[in-house]
Structure formats: C-alpha cells, structure tokens
C-alpha cells in the first residue's frame, strides 16, 4: 500500500441486523493532507462510514486501512483511536463544569497538558476563552473547543460528523475556517460528514453517497465557479445563454456587460 494514503477502504460493506445494507462495497482512498466532505441523503451511510473509519464499529466485510494500519489487525482499538483519530460530533459534549482548557485536557495523554491545551485553543482562535465554561461561550466557540479536544493527542486524521449541524451560518463558517487552517497549517487530514453545501464548498473534494454506495467523487471548484453555475441555471442566465436579453435590462447601458456575460456562461 502506498504510504501517502491516510484512508483506504476496499469493498467496505456494513449490514445492520443482517438485512439493512448501510454500506455496499465502498472503495475510497483519501490522501494525507486532504480536506474532504462526505455528503448524501439521510440514510445513505455517511455516519456508518465515519464510524468504520474511526474504528467505532466493525465492517461486515471488506477492509479499512487508516494511516497504514489495517484496522481488522489492530488489537488495542482504544489506543489506536486516541493516537491516530480525532472525532468531532454535532453535539459537542463538553463537560459543563470544566473550563474550555480543562475540557481539552481531558483526553490528553502525556505531560504538559495545560500548556498543550492552551496552545490548541490558541490555534483555534480561543486563547482568551481558555478559562470560560461552555455555557458562557457561543455555539461556534463551543464547537471549536470540541475541535481542540479532538486534537488533544495530535491525530493524523480528524473525522467530523455534521459539526455545523446545530450552528447558525456564521458560527458554521468559523468552524469550517478552523478546519481549513488545521488542514493547511498542521497538515491534518480532515473528513467532514455534512448536509450543508456551504460546508462542502469549504473543502476540496466531495464524495456523495447514495444507498451505501459512492455515487459521485469530485473536486470542489472555487466559489466563483459555483456562483457562475448558479447564475447559469437562473432565469436570466438561461435567457442569456439562449441569446435572449430580457427587455427589462435593455436600454440601461448594460448591453456590453451582458454580451460579455454570455461569453463567460457559454464557456463554463
Ligand atoms: P446517514 O449518516 O447517511 O444518515 P447512516 O449511516 O446513519 O446514514 O445509516 C445508513 C442506514 O443504516 C440507514 O438505513 C439506517 O437506518 C441504518 N442504520 C444505521 N445505524 C443502524 C443501527 N445501529 N441499526 C440498524 N440500522 C442502522
């Protein structure tokens, strides 16, 4: 197996109760340092995939390799999880009686916990919130503390299940910004399960599951490309493509701009 794979699954299949085919022969490879989203309708197998990658559950058949290790061969699964994988869930599950920094220290192994926790909070832009309890933090801040906690033992792989599901759009953007920074500055591989297209657009690859199978697997284009696609699908975009300029915009000096737009739209 090539050493630059962080995750690799081979014909990964999971049946619940012997009948519900939650994952059906998934082959997925994720390189070290990727930032990707897993999308798909409810029930398509996203959480199941995440659980199998994090060794929270076992497959019915097929293989999972994480950081070069075949999960089926690992004896001490708890040690593997605490060293290699960090989890972020929709509900942050912070301990309410502890401060942000103490919450980050909880799963830490080894020495100098306090200063390491402080450094992680700084990395996530929370240096001045270290002594706050969860109740006095915003939703986005709480989720970033949960991310810091997931990073407690410097995992190579961060697995997040709907991490922005409970947040408004600006807190969700804070969380995605944190994932992007971690990915770029620390090289952490990040896999985010999400329903949210704004979250997916903040990644670089989107894998879409349907009925337990990979339906699509594609690179994310830049936001400009997405905006152009949206505009192309709009009424005005369609009119322009068909060479019809709506009467309402004629006569206000926009003809040259519209002709230019026609050219751009037919090229994307
Ligand atoms: P998603 O995360 O995309 O919503 P899931 O992975 O949670 O999908 O579920 C995939 C399928 O497996 C669904 O049909 C779901 O009902 C079923 N499923 C998930 N977990 C269990 C379980 N513990 N027992 C039985 N069926 C389950």
Report on the architecture of this protein.
With 268 residues, this protein is an alpha/beta fold. The protein folds into two domains: 5-220, P-loop containing nucleotide triphosphate hydrolases (Rossmann fold); 224-267, no CATH class. It is built from ten helices and ten strands. The chain has a six-stranded mixed sheet with strand order 6-7-8-3-9-10. Strands 2-1-4-5 form a four-stranded antiparallel sheet, covered by helices on one side. Helix 6 (169-186) links the parallel strand 7 and strand 8 (189-193). The longest helix has 18 residues, at 169-186. The protein is globular and about 70 Å long. It starts with a strand and ends with a helix. The site of adenosine-5'-diphosphate has 12 residues, from strand 2 and helix 1.
Task: State the main characteristics.
Rossmann fold; 268 residues; 4-stranded antiparallel β-sheet; 10 strands; binds adenosine-5'-diphosphate; 24% strand
Q: What ligand molecules are bound, each kind once?
A: adenosine-5'-diphosphate
Low-confidence stretches: none
Q: For the terminal residues, how far apart are their CA atoms?
A: 37 Å
Strand content: 15-25%
Query: What is the 3D shape?
Result: globular
CATH homologous superfamily placement of the largest domain: P-loop containing nucleotide triphosphate hydrolases
> Which sequence of SSEs, written as H and E, runs from N to C?
EEEHEEHEHHHEHEHEEHHH
- What class, by secondary structure content? alpha/beta
Query: What topology, given as strand order, has the largest sheet?
Result: 6-7-8-3-9-10
Q: Averaged pLDDT, please?
A: 90
| Number of strand elements | 10
Helical amount among residues, as a percent range? 25-40%
């Amino acid at each position: 197996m090539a050493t630059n794979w962080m995750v690799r699954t081979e014909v990964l299949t999971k049946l619940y109760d012997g009948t519900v085919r939650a994952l059906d022969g998934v082959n997925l490879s994720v390189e070290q340092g990727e930032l990707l989203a897993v999308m798909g309708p409810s029930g398509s197998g996203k959480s199941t995939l995440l659980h199998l990658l994090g060794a929270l559950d076992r497959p019915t058949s097929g293989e999972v390799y994480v950081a070069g290790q075949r999960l089926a061969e690992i004896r001490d699964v708890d040690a593997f999880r605490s060293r290699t994988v960090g989890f972020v869930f929709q509900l942050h599950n912070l301990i309410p009686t502890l401060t942000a920094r103490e919450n980050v220290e909880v799963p830490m192994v080894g020495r100098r916990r306090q200063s390491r926790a402080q450094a992680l909070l700084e990395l996530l832009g929370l240096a001045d919130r270290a002594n706050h309890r969860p109740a006095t933090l915003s939703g986005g801040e709480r989720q970033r503390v949960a991310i810091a906690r997931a990073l407690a033992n410097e995992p190579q792989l961060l697995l997040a299940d709907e991490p922005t599901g409970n947040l408004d759009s600006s807190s969700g953007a804070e969380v995605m910004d944190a994932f992007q920074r971690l990915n770029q500055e620390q090289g952490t591989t990040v896999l985010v399960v999400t329903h949210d297209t704004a979250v997916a657009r903040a990644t670089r690859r989107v894998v879409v599951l349907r009925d337990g199978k990979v339906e699509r697997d594609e690179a994310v284009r830049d936001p400009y490309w997405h905006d152009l696609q949206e505009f192309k699908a709009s009424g005005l975009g369609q009119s322009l493509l068909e060479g019809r300029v709506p009467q309402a915009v004629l006569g206000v000096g926009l003809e040259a701009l519209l002709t230019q737009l026609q050219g751009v739209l037919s090229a994307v």
